[in-house]
Structures are given as structure tokens and as C-alpha cells.
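Hi L.,

You mentioned the student needs an example of a multi-chain input paired with its predicted structure. This one should do, with 1348 residues in total across all chains.
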Amino acid sequence: MMLKIGVIGAGAIGKEHIRRCSTVLQGASIVAVSDINAEGARSAVTALGLEAKIYDDGHALIADPEVQAVLVTSWDPTHEEFTLAAIAAGKPVFCEKPLAMSAEGCRRIVDAEMRAGRRLVQVGFMRPYDDGYQALKQAIAQGEVGTPLMLHCAHRNASVNESYSTDMAITNTLIHELDVLRWLLNDDYVSAQVIFPRSTRNAHANLRDPQIVLLETRSGVRIDVEVFVNCQYGYDIQCEVVGESGIARLPEPASVQMRKQARLATEILTDWKDRFIRAYDVELQAFIDDVKADELRGPSAWDGYAASVAADACLKAQQSGSVEPVEMAPRPDFYPR
Amino acid sequence: MMLKIGVIGAGAIGKEHIRRCSTVLQGASIVAVSDINAEGARSAVTALGLEAKIYDDGHALIADPEVQAVLVTSWDPTHEEFTLAAIAAGKPVFCEKPLAMSAEGCRRIVDAEMRAGRRLVQVGFMRPYDDGYQALKQAIAQGEVGTPLMLHCAHRNASVNESYSTDMAITNTLIHELDVLRWLLNDDYVSAQVIFPRSTRNAHANLRDPQIVLLETRSGVRIDVEVFVNCQYGYDIQCEVVGESGIARLPEPASVQMRKQARLATEILTDWKDRFIRAYDVELQAFIDDVKADELRGPSAWDGYAASVAADACLKAQQSGSVEPVEMAPRPDFYPR
Amino acid sequence: MMLKIGVIGAGAIGKEHIRRCSTVLQGASIVAVSDINAEGARSAVTALGLEAKIYDDGHALIADPEVQAVLVTSWDPTHEEFTLAAIAAGKPVFCEKPLAMSAEGCRRIVDAEMRAGRRLVQVGFMRPYDDGYQALKQAIAQGEVGTPLMLHCAHRNASVNESYSTDMAITNTLIHELDVLRWLLNDDYVSAQVIFPRSTRNAHANLRDPQIVLLETRSGVRIDVEVFVNCQYGYDIQCEVVGESGIARLPEPASVQMRKQARLATEILTDWKDRFIRAYDVELQAFIDDVKADELRGPSAWDGYAASVAADACLKAQQSGSVEPVEMAPRPDFYPR
Amino acid sequence: MMLKIGVIGAGAIGKEHIRRCSTVLQGASIVAVSDINAEGARSAVTALGLEAKIYDDGHALIADPEVQAVLVTSWDPTHEEFTLAAIAAGKPVFCEKPLAMSAEGCRRIVDAEMRAGRRLVQVGFMRPYDDGYQALKQAIAQGEVGTPLMLHCAHRNASVNESYSTDMAITNTLIHELDVLRWLLNDDYVSAQVIFPRSTRNAHANLRDPQIVLLETRSGVRIDVEVFVNCQYGYDIQCEVVGESGIARLPEPASVQMRKQARLATEILTDWKDRFIRAYDVELQAFIDDVKADELRGPSAWDGYAASVAADACLKAQQSGSVEPVEMAPRPDFYPR
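Structure written out for the whole complex:
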């Protein structure tokens, strides 16, 4: 009972997912791979000794009757199109973030899925599958710290390259917090504000780095997220939930403790791929298992839409310097909490 | 060569300082104590087996030729008057915070001291004398984390009583951060904003708790301070300095590490008096030593003024919900950095 | 290319491995299960909806031509017999610890495997597959702490039941350290000593608990292992490597950090199954992958023999109170370091 | 009411105590200093601007009627003689460790003090005055971890010079543990064993380093102390108390936590003088206060004797490789627990 998967897009992340399905995860096999560069698709397949059909057109792959489920890992601007096509074909689809290039695009996917009458879409937000965030959510749910009042968060990268622009602090970096914090609190954002501290000299000339994003939720929780993508010292994700009776903090990754050269130290990761490496496995295994059980439960098209709306407000707040509302459509019953 | 000290005000903190000078510190003796209730002054003196003159008038104490230096620990509204009187008498004076009831009052003391032509005033801000803050400042000064860009701080009390009002989060609680963070960064504030998260149900009805205060400094450092005075779990002071190349964090107080009942734990203090108990000793010893060396170096009247101006802006920001400027007079050369 | 596995013994651990191979791991399928109680085998299989042949005799299962590799999870005293039979049949075999009931039994397996001319046996020591021990070994290998001189270790269980006897502190508990520490240091033991501290009142009457085992290795490293199986507070595995230039310590399991009720705390596990849950997956996946690559690299029959010889010396030392030699045959070239 | 103190021996530690009494502590003044090199005594006094009589003979200083209490900080072999002389003169005496060069010498002081009929001697063991050990003892006393069963300790120095010999690991280094662990447990040693791991190449040729000392107490507590005086990485004192229901560990010294260069680190001290700097102040202040209250309560001559007897057994165990008994005279009622 292997789930037969077709992968659209054989770039870096596409190859990773092909490898993952073939050599790490349980219960799925890659039966087709497409890429606008068919040779790229072919080499991805042969490199792993797989047998899979090669397409140069994602729509043809979706139409292949052998393909039972679709992974969309193509160029960002094509995500919406292929996701909509998969929905139209009635095939479950795992779409890497971003779900679409705009909130409106996400909304079109939401609407299409609702018309289809059942959940067919999982967005590639992996943090809810991270052991640490899971433990943090459980601690909140069990009332370990009482009702949450504030979140103090940080998203730090050692450095970014010249192509990284000020708005990408929202769309590429903060987007993960925008998703996972909604999930953590089971709440929605109502406003956003962005503050620019003195910029580090380690950022390139056109980038304002760090930034502090302030979010407010429907229930009044206040969130501050420091986004600092040239922090030099490592890749470091922090999340602290201040509740009415205590504080819970995202676990630091386990590490050998060293006493050495007058320091008592543990290691901080430097490569983001190491930080959530297990979560990537778990999210995709969950997609496979949930498709087989015919009940998708991971990050939904609605979650993709919600993150997109919040990101838009943050982008506006970057420009205006003011508090900007996050104006989201009411949650359809189709997407229960 | 004992420094002969007169103490104005024999309440709780006055008694503490009398005890401190008599049984802990080096090189000073209490020769006079005044209180509007002379009996209170007398019992404070006899309880410790001291010999000291008793006054019911602080001005008479200041005038006593035997008194070489003055501690002002009287009712807050009298601080300005006695400090000005000590300056007029040319006697060094250690004045508990607040230096005066308004920024204007602080300014009058600044002006009087400048007219006197030498530093005579130390304000009772003790945090710069705390080992932890000292170590943090040293780490910054040595460039351990590069140029500071952001500070993330928290000031949490387990609980407060009914008399604690929303403005006291600024004037009684945040005031310590307003002083110590200026000293830590060697910088001045230019704006303040206050955010009110959802309030804890553990605060009494009229108190908005917690609050988040956002400060901006002249050099562009952005500071967030969570003030949460009914956090339930303990008295907890946090300060994290995010610099261009790393992050330095105020030490947690040393504590026995326990493995017990499925928890690996250290203790968090619950009484604020324990947290800075050594700093109180050190600040007063520094006053004694500096007076003898004829060179006051601790928190100055100018520092008292600066904290007061910043507090006023925060109070205004509590009301307005907006970003409020911190408008301070230019620093006179009399008070070098 | 699924590896077809037969499982001998459908008790608790047998069921676990069947579940693991069927729903977690990659590239294997369970094709046969045997148990002296055939009904037990059958229910294990049907509970997971598997299709597998049922045997009431392990030898018949081994002889089944469809079975490509064997898992021995039967009653301890039968391990040697089935492992020898698998070797005789030329089929790779993963045998749960203990490999045999005596060092002599282990030696018989070693000899049989050497006669077979290739590695066919992996013993179920999972700690070398734990992320933490892997990181610790890597730190040593990279010279992070210089040449190891001492190891300070602890193996603590919250409590054990009445059937746990003083010798089981060696054969059931310490046996894991006896394996993993040899692997960590790439060294062999030469002597053992056991010290009995004052016993806890939380142990039953006939159990001496805790115990301290002192080991010496060929290169002169000294190891102390505290075995304390009624420590009350949790399941806690500690390992500290003191080298010539620093100290490396096994990571604490990642855990949410809580500030609550005057404590700054992380959780300590209480169930041993949670501590090495991932390592169980990884060791069996490694067996599957290594069998397919025709190159077993995990804990060998020789490792099983070495642990057994060391355990015997510890048992003797429990009785004698003296330092007892660990007398092991020379390592055959067949088993390279 | 200043206590008038005479100091015998103006070497490094003598000068430190003179400075301490004059500029840090409360309620004492140095009125006389002796040294066999009177010029050394004189320069120690004038360097601090003190007025004190200078002697070249400790006995003359003891005889000076102005001297109310004596500090013995002279050459180790003279400690016994001067301490006995102070007892004979009925003057309280604080004697730096070692109290005498042998257990017999300590015993002579014990006998002399008992004949004098009141406690006159405090030995310079400062660890019981350390905040960390105080907190650890309190945790034990409050039953936080249940009855102690084992202690795991370490005493590590970054390095020692050529003059440090293998026996000094006991007499200069372990001696602090021998005192403080008796005090911590309120118990006595009954046996000692010494194990020599592989020696570090960072020790000079004639020094065996590290060493592991195993101690057994009357109540059956087992103690292991790693003594490692060329550990390279810092000065590090560890003490872990394993009790029936939990484990308590000596606090790490408070330190700024840094995130920097892929490490999350706190500092480890490198100079032993920094580690117990406060404890030196506190022990001597306690002596001053206790002398004034006419009730010495610090480490007694009996404690000095007990540490000396235990050290002798450890030295014997270094030679014999065997478990050696610690044979102490019964505790006289004169020295209550």
C-alpha cells in the first residue's frame, strides 16, 4: 500500500523531498518527477537509482493516473497554479511555502478546496512538526504556565547574501513565526508594527537588519519577534511564552556540554537545515500517513492564507512605521480550529 | 578616619542603612538620626546599641557640625528639600530614589550642585553596583558582543498589593531599568512607547499588568522591557544585550542545582530584597569611600534627572498609546560620561 | 528491494520491533513471526494488519527460504541457540541482548561467525546509535577534550520492582555502559571493582542499591559508574569524559525550560523507553541498511562477548569486594576496531 | 569596640589578611605585625598607611598586652608553636591551614585548648563560609534530597608548577574537601583509597595527575573526589550530593551567559583566588564577630585534627594502593557537632 507520489520541480528542495520519500520515510514511492528542465528531473531520479516517469510539464504529471498525490516544489510563482490543478484533479497536494504569491492567490486555493468538499492541501510549514514546538504547545495546553499573555521570540541567521532584501525579513524569515505562533496560540493576528533598531554593520548596504516585529492577537496576546539575519553567531530560534503563572521556553537543541578554555559551553547550530531536519521528515511522513487515512490534518490552505495576510500587514508596517491592522476574512467552518 | 554620617528618616530603609553602616560597612559611623517622629529615630539607634544624636528636624541634623555626610531616607516628597539643604551646607548627600517628585525638582538639584561647583549628590540607584550588571557592562565594554543594537529586558515581581497602580509600573518598577540601562549603554533615551497586553487575572481590577515598554536611544538601540508585577513565579530580572556579533545576558543568581521529582531545577528568588542585597552594601560603601576620597562617582543628580525625564515620557505614553519623545536638556560638562 | 525479516519471539520487545519495521523504518517487511505460543505470534501480526507466516518454532522460521534476515527477541536463554542457527543458515541475525547467558556462550557465537567467514550478527546494544553518544564520541575523536583520562557516569532508574536483584545491577543495567563505554573509548577493560554505599531505604530488603562500579581500561582510563535503580527522581543517564584539556558531557535530553513556582526547570524523563526511543529505530534501520549493503557494522558478536566478560568480572567483584581482572581473549583480526 | 589584632607572618597571605581587616571587614584593627624579617612586616603596614607595632618574633607579639586576638599566617612549620602560645596566653587565634604539620601536632593543640577550658582556635578552612556550600548544606538539612548516600566531587586547577608533588594533591588540594565534606555531611571518614588514572601529559614528569580519592564515612556515605591539578581549562570545584530522593549540586559561580561564535557559554574561573574570594572575607569577619561574642563557632582545632588524620590515611593509600582505615580518636564532648 505504497502511496504513489509525483513531484513537480526537481530543484534543491525537490531533490531533498525525493530523497526523503525514497530513503527515510515509510509508505510512499516516487513514481513521477517533472521539471521544466526534464534533464534535471531525470538526473534527480537516476542519482537515487529510482524508477520514475519524467515530465517537463507539471500538469501532465498531475494528470498521470498513477500519481496519487502531488508534491509542489517548483518555482514559487507556479505554486498556486499547480496546487489548483491538483485540487481540480482531486489529488492531495503538499505545496512548499509560499502557497501563493499573494493573499488573494491563497484565497483562490482556499475557495477551490472548499468547492472540492474535502481537504486536499497541506502547506509546507514544518515547525508545528518540530519536537520542541510540540512540547511547548503541549505545555501551554496543559496549563503549565496559565493563559498566555506575551510571546518573546527571535529568529536569527548567521548571515544572508546580497540578494536578501528588507522585505524578505517578513516573507522569507518571519513567515515561519507567522505560521507557528498562530498554531501555538490557536489564535489570529489583529495588528502588526515593525521597529527598526540601529542596523548592524554586518548587513549589506540596502538591508535594514535587525528588525523587531510586534504583533497583537485577537485575544490580546502581544508578540515581539526579533528578526536578525546577520547575527554572526549562529542560527538561533527562540520562543518564550509568558503566561499568567509562569514562562515556558522552546528547548535549546540538545548538545554536548563542554568545559574547555575557561568556558562552560554548548554548541549553537549554524546551518538552518540542521535545526529542523527532523521536522521536515515528520511533516512529510504526516502528509503520507494522513493522505492514506484520508484525513489531512497538517497546515492547511487556510493557514497559508492567514500567514499571507499577516505578512502583508507586516510589509505595510515596514513602510508606514505605524501599527497596521491584519484584516482577515472570517474563518470558514470548513477549517475548524 | 571614620566618616560621620547623619541619617534623615528612620523608616524601614533608613533603619536598613543605619544597620548597614554600623555592622556591615567599613569606615563610617552614624552620629545623628532624625525623624519627624523623634521616638522612631531613637529606637532605631538604641536597637543597635549605637550612640547618636536624635533630631526631629532634618535641617537641624544637616546643620550639626559633627555630621560630615547625609543619608536622605525620609518620605519621598521631602527628598528634594533635604538634598538641596545638604548641598547648601556643602555636605555630601546620598539620597534614596526618587531624587525629587518631578523632573523639574531633579533639575533644581542639578543646578544647585553645579553652583556648588563639585559633586555632592549620589542617588540611590543600586543596580550599577550589582556584580551581574557590572559583568555585563564589562562584557560590552570589552567588545565581547560588538556594538549593542537591542536590549530585551524583563522586570517581574511575584505579586503586588492593592495600592500598586498602573503608573507605578513606571515610577516604582521600570525606574530601575531606566537608570541602569542608560548606564549600561552609556546612552540616552529619545522616545518611549507603552503596549498593554491582555492583563493577567492575578492583578487587581484597576491595574493593567503586564506592560511592555519600548525605548529608543540616541544611538538607535531599541529596548523592550516587560514589566510584569504579578507574574506569580518569582522576582526575576532579565537583561539581554544583542550586539552586532553576539548576545550577552545578565547572570542568573547562583543557586544549588537539584535533580528531583522529574525536574532539573535551580531556584528563582521570590523576594526582591534578596536579589540586590549585595548591591545595596556596595553602593553605600562606594559612597563612603568616594566621599573620603572627595570624588563622588556613583549615580549623579544628572542621572536622577535623566531617569525622571524618561519616566515622564513613559507615563505620557501609557496614556496616549503613542510614541512619545524623551526631551532632555543637553548634558552639562559638569557631568561627564 | 524490501529486506524480508523473520522475528523469533513475539513478546513485548518482539512486538515493538515488528511495529518498528512495519510502520517506522524503511526498506524491510516482516514475512514471518514465530513464538512458542503461536497464538501470540498470530495476534502480534494481525494487530498490525500484516501478512506474515506464523511459526511455533524458531528453527522452522530460520529455515524458511523467504526469510532473509532474523530478529531474535525470544526468551533470553534461547538467544544463543537461535543466533547459532541463523549463522549456520548463513542468514544475518539481529539478536537482542544478552547475546548468550555466559561469556562462553558468546564465545561460541564468535567462533561460529568467524567460521562462517563474514559478519552475520548484530547485538541489540542501542546506545551507540543514540544522537547524544554519537556527538560525544565525535567530540572525543576530534580531540575537543584531548586524550580521555577518566569517565564519570551514572545510570539511574526511578525504581525497580521486587524481582530486581543485586546482580541485575550488572547484568541488566550496567551492561549498557559496559558496551557503550568500550565503544566510546575504543578500548577494553582490564579490571573491575564494586563499592556498596549505604543503601537507600527505597530499595526492597534484598537489594543493595546504589552501587558504584570502578573500571580500568587497557590504556589506563578510569571509569566510575554509579548504578542507582531506585533514585526516585527519574531515569537519568550521565556520562562525562574528562580529557587532558577539557571535559565533554553527554547532552541532557532537550526539554521545555520552565520558570514556575520559584523554579527554573527542565524536565527529567521518568520512563527509560523515552530516553533511547530514537536509538532503537536507528539501530534497527542500520541493521536493515547494512544487511542490504552486505556489511554489518553495528555492535558485533565480539562486542557481546566483551561486555559479557566484563560483566562476569563485575559480578565477581560484587562478591569479593576486591579489584577483579577482566580477562578477555585477544581480539581476532576478524573483528577490527 | 574594635578588636585589636596581631598578625604573625607578613607573607602573601598575611598581607591579604591585614588588608582585609583594614579595608573590608568591620570591627577590627591591626595593632601589631610580626615577621622574622621585620622589614617585611614594616612594609606591609606602611603600604596600607596603618599604625601598628612591628615585631620580629611572634612570641613577643602574642605577649603584647594590646593584642587581643592573633592571626597565624607564618611559615607552615611554625603554626603549631604560635597557636599553642596563643592558647597559653588565653588569646583567641585564627590559624591558617595547616594547623600543624602532623595529626599529632593537631592533637597537641586540641589538648591544649581543652585544658584552657574554652574554644580559642579557629582554623583557616574557608569553604564552609562559601555561599554555595552553605546553600548546599541547607538543602541537605532541609531534606531536599533525602539522606545522602554518595558524593561526587572534583577539585581541578588549570595547572601547577614544578614544585607540586604527588602527595600535595592530598595535603594542599584535597585537604579542602576533607574539611568541607565532613562539615557538609556532619560525619567522619572511616577509610580512604586512591586510584591513579592514566596521567596527563600536561603534568611534569614526577607528578601523578589526576588522582581519584575514594572515601567512606561512618554512616556509609561513599565519596569520590577527582583531584586534577593540570586540567588546563580552569579552576573548577564540583560537589554533587546524591541522596535517597534527589541530587543537589554546588552552584556554578554566576556568570554572564554569552551567545557567540556558535557557542552558548558561561565563563569558568581560572584563578582560585576568585572562586572563594568572598568566603575569605566571611570567615575572618566571623572570627572577629565570634571573638567579640566570646563564642568561636568556625572550623575548630578538632576539625583541623580530623582533616589531618584523613589526609594521613590518603597519603598512605597513595603508597599502598589499598583501602586504608582513617583512625581517629573519639570526639571529645568539648567539640560538639
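You could point out the following to them. The radius of gyration of chain C is 20 Å. The domain at 128-271+306-325 of chain C is CATH 3.30.360.10 (Dihydrodipicolinate Reductase; domain 2).

Best wishes,
N.
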